[in-house]
Each structure stands twice: as structure tokens, then as C-alpha cells.
Amino acid sequence: MKLRLGMIGGGHGSFIGAVHRMAASLDGLYELVAGAFSSNPDTSRSTGQHLGLAPDRVYASYQELVEQEAQRPANERVQVISIVTPNHLHFAPAKLALEHGFAVVLDKPITFSLAEAQELAAVLKASGQKLCLTHTYTGYPMLKEARHLLATGALGRVRKVYVEYPQGWLSTPEESGENKQAAWRTDPARSGIAGAMGDIGTHAFNLLEYVSGLRVTELCADINTVVPNRRLDDDGAVLLKLSDEASGVLVSTQVAAGEENNLRLRIYGEKGGLDWQQADANTLLVKWLDRPTEVRRTGASYLSATALHNSRIPPGHPEGYLEAFANLYRNFALTLLAEQGGSPAPPEAQDYPGIEEGLRGMAFIETVIASGQSEKKWTKFTL
Amino acid sequence: MKLRLGMIGGGHGSFIGAVHRMAASLDGLYELVAGAFSSNPDTSRSTGQHLGLAPDRVYASYQELVEQEAQRPANERVQVISIVTPNHLHFAPAKLALEHGFAVVLDKPITFSLAEAQELAAVLKASGQKLCLTHTYTGYPMLKEARHLLATGALGRVRKVYVEYPQGWLSTPEESGENKQAAWRTDPARSGIAGAMGDIGTHAFNLLEYVSGLRVTELCADINTVVPNRRLDDDGAVLLKLSDEASGVLVSTQVAAGEENNLRLRIYGEKGGLDWQQADANTLLVKWLDRPTEVRRTGASYLSATALHNSRIPPGHPEGYLEAFANLYRNFALTLLAEQGGSPAPPEAQDYPGIEEGLRGMAFIETVIASGQSEKKWTKFTL
Amino acid sequence: MKLRLGMIGGGHGSFIGAVHRMAASLDGLYELVAGAFSSNPDTSRSTGQHLGLAPDRVYASYQELVEQEAQRPANERVQVISIVTPNHLHFAPAKLALEHGFAVVLDKPITFSLAEAQELAAVLKASGQKLCLTHTYTGYPMLKEARHLLATGALGRVRKVYVEYPQGWLSTPEESGENKQAAWRTDPARSGIAGAMGDIGTHAFNLLEYVSGLRVTELCADINTVVPNRRLDDDGAVLLKLSDEASGVLVSTQVAAGEENNLRLRIYGEKGGLDWQQADANTLLVKWLDRPTEVRRTGASYLSATALHNSRIPPGHPEGYLEAFANLYRNFALTLLAEQGGSPAPPEAQDYPGIEEGLRGMAFIETVIASGQSEKKWTKFTL
Amino acid sequence: MKLRLGMIGGGHGSFIGAVHRMAASLDGLYELVAGAFSSNPDTSRSTGQHLGLAPDRVYASYQELVEQEAQRPANERVQVISIVTPNHLHFAPAKLALEHGFAVVLDKPITFSLAEAQELAAVLKASGQKLCLTHTYTGYPMLKEARHLLATGALGRVRKVYVEYPQGWLSTPEESGENKQAAWRTDPARSGIAGAMGDIGTHAFNLLEYVSGLRVTELCADINTVVPNRRLDDDGAVLLKLSDEASGVLVSTQVAAGEENNLRLRIYGEKGGLDWQQADANTLLVKWLDRPTEVRRTGASYLSATALHNSRIPPGHPEGYLEAFANLYRNFALTLLAEQGGSPAPPEAQDYPGIEEGLRGMAFIETVIASGQSEKKWTKFTL
Description:
4 copies of one chain form a homotetramer.
Chain A: E1 3-8, H1 15-25, E2 30-36, H2 41-50, H3 62-71, E3 80-83, H4 91-99, E4 103-106, H5 114-127, E5 131-133, H6 141-151, E6 158-166, H7 180-185, H8 188-191, H9 196-212, E7 216-224, E8 235-242, E9 247-253, E10 264-269, E11 272-277, E12 283-288, E13 293-297, H10 305-309, H11 321-340, H12 355-373, E14 379-380
Parallel strand pairs in A: 1-2, 1-3, 3-4, 4-5, 6-9
Antiparallel strand pairs in A: 6-10, 7-8, 7-14, 8-9, 10-11, 11-12, 12-13
GO molecular function (chains A, B, C, D): nucleotide binding
Pfam families (chains A, B, C, D): GFO_IDH_MocA, GFO_IDH_MocA_C3
């Protein structure tokens, strides 16, 4: 009953390729059967071999993978294709895969530019296929709980949102050494017009909109390149106007020396606030105006159904990043399998990021960079 | 290149069976191909179907599984059998599997009694096979780091060890309702002579010995049954004499209302101390006599090779219980695969709990229960 | 050897008056001997009586206090006058006290407007007296340590500063009820042109400049009044350009429902970062690019002399807000006593906020409110 | 309206003398007017001078202080005498002070031996005076809240109590150097029959009984001297039987290298648990069987009256050890002042440790040391 999975990108040394494979494996809902793991055929071949794939399903290019798999019998060919390449190599394989009738999992940001994203949206619509965009952090169960609390009005109207994603790993000119991650992420030709804002700012933006249910309407950005000779931004802060008269602040930096990946989201409504951070991902603090703060915990029986659906083990046994990532793959699989079975997927299965999130993410990148270059305070966010 | 895995136990509703499957899947090193998931053939069959197994490899009993798999061709039959049944059903299937030439993964405690464990040790030795005992918590990377720090003498001679495993889930008479977990874990016929001490006290004991490198030599136990009519202990505290003139305290309780599973280990040497707890599993505090406490973190570049070997993703992206569990499966697989390849497994792969830990765990159970019934202060720990 | 202290303001029900008295008492360096505790003579009298003052030293107005104390013999009259009134009543009594030869302790913000602050600076200079401005938070020992680390270059050049002061107590229209604190703090006639930015934003601003050693050069503010009908801002966020090419973000809000007073400061340099928050005031996290985070703690032997000077008890016994406040009073007293003794005060005693901090605080208020009303992104910070 | 205070002990270099003075000063309820600060008259004189006392009220011995103060006019002589000497010098001055009609504040443990404590109890009773024993930790507001929650049955019957007091400062043979604290605290002639158990174990014991309302009925101790050549215990762990069928564990050690003073108390009842630690003294975690843990915080409006009575400032501004200590002095003063005024003190003012706590503390010391030397498991706790 497993979905047959193919992968584009993710050869030896790829961080995110391995993550996708673990996330897809965890729940036994996918079986990796094909791949074009690298534009270097030797790398692709050796990766496939290492992963135990049949040699004839390890391809030298993404075109080969898509076209040859499409010709295999329906009960043998891949059903889902994961694309885990750098940003400039998202659009073309995604388009090709969709056009050949495959469901697609795509790493974020969805494409190299907003224009590409819009074209991909059209392709997707025409194809009738499904697409999952791996904004991992939305997979954390306690963020599902946070979203549920806000959606049900438990905290009243939202007034203020703070989201921050500080990293320290680009505090030095890593890209001038052998760090392949640093090299492509700071290269405008592969990453796009944004560095930190594209890489992690989009995660922060997505999380804010996903959990709060609000939309950014205007923003004011301070965008910096702190490390000399770096070619893209590595630091920024953004004032936000949000729908429903709320406001916010978004911080994203890769030069906060000593920081790991402590994404944090705080949302305050009329009656209380929410505080979540990745460093303590299984805890959601729910703060109240006039009674004690509550510590809600992954897996606890008092949680909402959506939070419990996205958790696997009893409370107190920590679930982490891979489990959050796997929640995206799992929900996507449950949706695909339900449709194969002819019934609509339940709402909690349909809860994974897709093309809408991709489009807004690209619009965020373009708006925030434009604002950074503007002398006006506020720049409208349009899509 | 995946190891073919069979499973005994773990039918629908089994907590630990699902955990074993996720742990085995995570790194793509095992493929579940056969199972006898329940003593109820229907349950076994439907579980196997749900998991997508071929019907002819879903068996009605563990004997069938072992005997029929043994008759399959070498390149098809299972290579490893995971046994995830209640304690009273560990020994017989493990013995049978070993005698038929299979490697075995066994949930803890290893058997129902020390006598069984000793007999299993003999069977294992005679079989020439390998056995992995899933003392999950030893799989956490920061406990590998802790062990490394102590083994290399960074903290001087160990003087004091505190280990505690508080749970709250048995604060009420859960076993009188529909909770199957509670039912067998409080039943002497299925669990053995100990309740909390067998279920979680053995984990605490194992962790203490594994990380410190010390051995318990004498102990003094206060063993209680707090909830009325419960048939086994649900609470206890133990004073410990340890090798090398150290001493310690072990706490294990299932009636600490409101606690989840916050296993915690603290070890103090002449120069400093270590503090780890499952609730913050990716952090190891290293305390020093005369300089600031250090916060060591999973995945950080400054960690020991053994800690890094047992981690998968960059620091700040939390790894949890399933990853720790998967480390046991992974190291066991790396050991088996190396041997299949004719070369000895590297030391970090051989770092998984086995028969020795199983024997000591059973001796712990028998000693701690005996001490609980004794009016003497100290009871010798012998094996 | 105690300094004789007089107090203006701080009658029954005043929060900050009681705080000043406790802070002044703690180290036995001041003795409260006189007061004009309220503009209501009865309140002043009963407060003085409650505090055990001699009736003839309890005055009906600040003018009486200053003028009559000045006529007492030198060995009897007050030496220091603390002014703890609302903002609009800072300037006049401070001016009068200085002109009559008294040292002054003044609550922040220093005056009602920048113009008043500038005039007070001139009065102070002409008087030859000393003034201490109670920016309490700079008194925390771990912020002394932070400042020391940055000043000595341990973290390299500072790149990024985040400071935030979230409160929740004005999430509802408290000022329409009986809350006197809320009433004057949201009243432009008593508080000045700023609400939250004046009340707590100035603390955040002061802390940032004090600890980092940098100066704000330009800023871009989003200033909001969230609670309907409130007359001053209750929320804001500010992008900052700082001297030496650094940048930062300042957040100050009083509508973060459920938050207490968790002032937090994070500063990142080329080699590492610092993280301090009032909720865990005795801890300073020092983060490094390539080695474990250090947990520095109040009172520990490895701290700088300045941090140890501002601490009283052994590590692990928490020191709090009153101790931080008392550090300002203590350092001010040590400075005054040293001068009385004819010798210059040691540097660590001279480390208390004064007129410069007051001027910059008022300039911050005026600049940040102007920026909030501007459509330009950046507004210059001049003084 | 201040109480006139005299002090015995607390000369230059005394840690606890300075703490008593700060605690007594904080609330303006005491004025230090006399002292016999050292058995060395020169030290006593220079300490008194430094503190600004009148020279004729600085005495060369405690006898002088008591006898000469007793001869002063009633409106001038001291009303309360604080005794802050090492343990062997508690009994004689306390007895003398009580017999001369003074109220007494005494540091813990109350005396050198249980026999002395019993004699002191008789003296106290005969004198009609009051005595306050400074078990500081009971002054923390969140422990008042904890006690209140248990006393009102919110958590059901108490089942399990864990209390621990780990320190690291005696990990090395400090007493062989110049550390005066270490010297007397490890000296049987000055400290009594117990080291760590007397110094900090008594605090842990007192806290357990005070907060839980239970009484220790039997105990089983493992008492160790870890550092070679030390003359008293520096480490121990104790199993406890408590009244009302509860049980517990008490840990007290001074060789937990790297630990500060993280006293921690956890109490579990049928419905939930409490968790408090000095390192985060303004937080009380209240855990529940089936709903989220609550974070109760010092100063919050939802707290019990007794918790609020023992707090001074708004929530989020931390209160620490000195404030807890000051709560003892304050409650004692409020009691004495009420009686002077002819009215009984309100219950919250009478909430300070006294002779009963002193007697039980000494019985604890004698019982725990006896148990440490016994081969029987359980030793009865009698008084």
C-alpha cells in the first residue's frame, strides 16, 4: 500500500535529500524506487546504488526520470516525485513531472521567481495533480495546536505577531570555502534575489500566516549584507501590517553568531498569547491575561484532534524535526491514497502546504527585497 | 541493501510495535517483509495487510514465522526478527529465532526472569547470532557525548550519580479499565515480579551503568504499591553503592501525577558534572567547578565522533525519541551488514545494548525487589 | 555613615516609591529622614508617619521640603533627594533640589520633554551636583558582565542587537477603571508624548546603548495604539541603525496579553552572541561560533570585577529586581561618599545612569514618535 | 516605628551576617543599633564602626551586649537580637538573650545538639519571648503558594515527595585553605555531628515538612564523606517514610561539582504535582493528571493571599533570596509589632519558622546520622 516515490536531486552530500528520504520513510507510506540524484550521472548512479535502488531506475537526468517512469506500467511507475534541488532547478522538473501526471513534492521556496511560481500554478491547475511544498515547520504538532486555538477564537482577535528565525552559520564567509550549502544559498544565480530572506525568512513568513490565519498586507524591511563580499542578504528585519488590523515583526538572520535554528513564533490576541520555539518544539506556552500560563505538550490527551493527528508517541518522548517533516509527507500520502481509493481525504490529511503557500512565499521575497531598497516606509504586499 | 525484517507482536493497538517499525524504517536500512503480529491470527492478518505485507508472510504464530521463514531461500528470508511482545513472551520466540539462525531485536526487559535471561545467553552464545536489546534511551546522541566525556576522564573520577524516571500515567487504576498497556504492565503473570521497577526502573539502571561506566554493587530499595489493589509496585527509590567508591540514587515511579517521561541523569565527578534529561534531549549540560556551565547540543561540530555518528541533522533541528530508537536499529544493522561484508563493524556501530545489558537488567529487577522486602539496609548485587 | 535621604512623591499606593525605599535601604547606605510624599498634605503626613519619620520632616510640598531642609544644619539636612513622581513632575523639583545643593535621584524618563531635559542638564552642570537616573535594569550583574565582554572585544565587532520589552497589563482599558498607574501612564498631560515607548521603550533603548556601547543613529518606527480610545501608544516596533555599522530591532509593547516584564537583550558580534532576559536575570548566555554556549551566573568566581561588585550573595541564591535597583543607589552612594571623603570614586561606583542617559532617552522618545508619524523609512537620531 | 535590632556575630567576612542585615533592612522595619560582631573585640569594633553604630553600642562579647542593653531605658534598648554565629555558639547567647527579655532571631540549625535545642525550648517557654529561626527558603512566595495548594486539598492526598539540595563548593578540600566558611562547617567542634546534612540537609528537611504538611516518621540514610580527610559528611541520600502513608527521598550533597544552590522540591498528590526550584524561584509548576501544567508566578493576581503577602513587586520583576529572607524578618516584625500594639498578629504574619522547626531539625540531624551508621534499613524518627 506504499506510494512509489522518485527523487530529483539529493545525491551524496545533499543535506535536504537525506532529510526528505527519512521523512518519507518514517511512516512506511512511501517506498523510494527511482531517482535522478544529481546532474552528474556518476553521482546519481552511486547514490542510487547506495540506496539499494534497481539500477534501471537510477537516471542520469530529471528528464530521463520523468519520461521513462511515465512509460512504465501504472502499477510500477513512481506515483510521487520529490524535487530537492537548489531553487533555480525547481521549476523545470516540477513542470515536467506535473505534465506527465505525477504528484510532486517540492522543497521551498517553490521556484526561483514569482513569475515562475505563477506559471507553475497554471501548470498545476491544468494537470489536475497535487503538489506539496515542504514548509517543514508547519508540521510540528504544537503549531497545529496553536493554529487551532487561534482559529477557534480562544485568544480573541489577534493583535500582534512576532516571528524570528536566527541562525549563526553564515557569520563567516563560509561560501568561499568548501561548504556547498553556503555556496549555492549565497549565489544569486542559484538562490534567486534573496539570501537569508529566501532561505529562512520565507519559513518565518509562512509560519506566521499559517498559524495566525492572517495575511501580510504591507511591510517595511531593513535588509542587510553583513559579511563583506557576500552577494545576497544575510540579515533582515521587517515591520508588518497584517489583515484584521494586526501588526507584527519578522526577523531573519544568518549572522547571529552562536545561534542554531531557533525559529520562534509568538502571537498575542485580546485574551492571551502563544509562544512556541523550535528549541522546545514539543511545548506550546499559552499565556492568559488573568490566569496561569499553560504548558501544552505534544501527545497530551487534552490537545485538539489536529495536534494529535500529527503526533506519534506518548507525551514526554520528544518528537522532532524529522517527525514534523514526516507529517507533511504523511498528510500528502493520506490525501493521495484517499483519492486513489475514491474518497475525499479528511481535513487533517489535506493540511499540508501547497501552491498557495508557494505563491505567497515568492511574493514575500519580491516585496521584502523591494522594500529593503525603498526609502518609503511601507510597501504594499500584493499577489 | 536493506535487511529483511520480521516482527513478532506489534499488532493493531500496540504502542511499541509501531515504534519499532518507525525506528527500523527511518534510515532505510530495514524492510519489513514478514510478521506474526498477534496470537490472534485475524489481528495478525489485518495488521500485515495494513502494513502492505505479502499475505503469505503474515503468520498466525511466532513458531510459524520462524520455521517457515527459515525454509525460504537465503536471499528472501528475513534476516532479523524483532520481538515486541509483553515480557512473558520474550524468551520462547527469541530462543527459537536464534536457534534458527536469525539475528534478534528484543524489547526490554530481556525476559520474564533472570533464569530465562541466563538460558537465553547460553542459546545466543551457541547460536553465534547477534542480539540487540532496545534500551532506547542509550541511543540519544547527547548521552553518547556524556559517556565519552566520562570515559575520557574529562570530569575525573565519578563520585555521585542520580538517575530518575518519573511517570504519572498510573496514578489512577488504569488497569481496571480498557488500557491494555496498563493491564499487562501491572500483571505479574505477564510482566514478572516487578512493575515500575521492571518497566522503567530497568531503563534508569541501564542508563546509569551505560553512561557512567560504573556497576551497581549493592543497593537499598524502598518499593511501594501506591494505588490500592494494584498487583505490582508502581513506585520506588533506591540507594546505590557503585564500583570505584561512587554512590547514587535511582528513582522510578509511575504515580508522579502530571509527569510525562522525564528520564533524567546527573553524574558528578571530581572536576564537574553532567546533566541530561529527556524533556530537553538535545542538550547536555556540562558543569565545572570553576568555569561556566557548557551547553552541548546535538549535531554541533565540537562533539565527539560517537555523538555525531548518532545524529542526522544540523544542530537546532531537534531529534527525538524515534531517532534515538532508530540509532539502535541503525547501529545493529551496520554491525550485521559489516559482518555480512566480511569486515568487523566499526566500534561506533557495535555500540548497542545486548545480552550483557539484558542480564544485568534482570539481576537488577530481582535484587531491587528482594531489597524492597528486606529489613537489612544493603543487598548485594551479584550476577 | 549613612546618607540622609529625602523623598518627593511615593505616597501610599505608589508602586515606585516603595521600590525606591527598599532599594535605598538594602545596603544600609541611606537613611530616609524626610519626605514630601504627596501633593495632598494629609497623604504626605500619613505616609511619613507610617514610615516612622519625625513629623517636622514630613512636608506638604516639594518646595517646602527643599527649602526647609536647605536651612537645616549641614550635619542634619538631607544629602540626597529622590524624586519618584509622574513624568510631568520631574523637572521642577529636580531643578529646585539641585539649585539648593542636593544630590538627586530621579526616576525615568528624566523629564516630560527633551527641552526640559536640556534645561535640567544646564542646571545640573551649574550646580556642581550629581544626579542618578534610575534605569534599573542596568543594575543587573549579568548585564554588567555582558557590557564587560563587549567592551573588551571578546565577541568582536557588534553586528546585530535585539532588545524587547513586552508587557501585557494594558491589554484592556485599565485606565478607565481605578488603576492609578494606568491612568497617569496613558495620560499625555502627565506622561508626555509617548506611552509604551516612554514607559518601557526608553528602558529597552537605554539597555541597548549601555550594554552594547553603540549609539542609535537612525530609526524607523511602527507606533500603534491598539486598545480603542487609549490616548497614547501602547505598542511599537523600531528598526535601528547603530554606530559602527551595526543594526538592530527594538520592540516595546503593553498589549502582549499574558506577558509580565520579560525585558530581553540579545547582541551578536563577529565571534559570538549574548542573550539575557529578566525572567532569568542571573543567567547570561554567551554563545560562540564553534564551541558550546556558556552559562554565566551571578556571583560566580569567574565573572568580571564589575559583575561581582554588583552582586551580594553566593551563586545560586537568586538576586532580583530590587537588588538591581539597589545597585544604582549603592553605586551612587559610594560615589557621593567617596567625594565627601575627598577621594574620587572608583570606576565601578561611578557606573550609574545620569544626565547623559536622560538626554538620550528623551531624544529617543521624540525621535521614535516622529518616525511613527513619518512616511519616510529612516529618521535621524540627533542630540 | 522600627524595631531596634542587635546582632551577635556577623563581623567582617561573615557571609550570613551581611545577609541578615540586608534582610532586616529591606522593609524598613528594623534599625540595627547594637552589636557584638565578633569574639575579637577589635573586629567587633571595626565592624560596628563600618556599620555606623554608636561606639558605646558595639560590644566586645555577647554577654556584654545582652547585659548592658538590658540596662538601657526601654525606649532605647534593642528589642530583637539576631544570632548569626556558628552552630556551637547559638545556644548560650540565645538563652541569655531570652532570659533578659529579648526576642531572638537565630540562624539554623537551632543549636549544636538536640539536647541543647530541648533546653532552649524550655528557656523560651519560660521567657514568654518569641524566636524566629531563619529557614530562609520557606520565605519564598511560590512555596507559600505550594503549601496553600496542598493544605486546601487541590492536589488530593500527598503520595510522594522529592527534595534535593545539591551544592558543589566542597568538591575540593576547601577547609584546608583559607575558606572560613568551609573551615567551621566541616569542623565537628563547631558544626556538630553533621556536615552537609546539618548545613543544607536540614533546609531540605524543613522545606519538605513545611510545604507538604507531612511529618517524617522513619528514614534510611546513606551518609558519605567523599573528600578524603574531611571530618564530617559531605554527601547523603535518605529514603523517607512520611505521615499519611506518603514516602519520599531527600538528597543533600556538597560534592556535586558545578552545582550552585539549586534546592528543589517536588510533591505529588493524587491529582497532580508541584515542582519548585530555587534556580527559578518565582515559578511554581503545577502539574495535573489530565490538563496542561500551570506556570504560577510570584506576584500574579491569581495567587493565594499568603503568596501575595510575601511578595513586594509586580510579576516579572524577579524577587530572590534576600527577599525570601526578608520575609522571615518582616513576618517576625509584624508579629512583634502587633503584640506591642496589643492585638494578635494576623496568621500570615505568624508564618515564620520557630522553636518547633528547630527541634525537628535537630532530631533530623541526630536520626539521619544514626541511620547512616546503622545496618538496619529503617530508623524511627522520634521527638
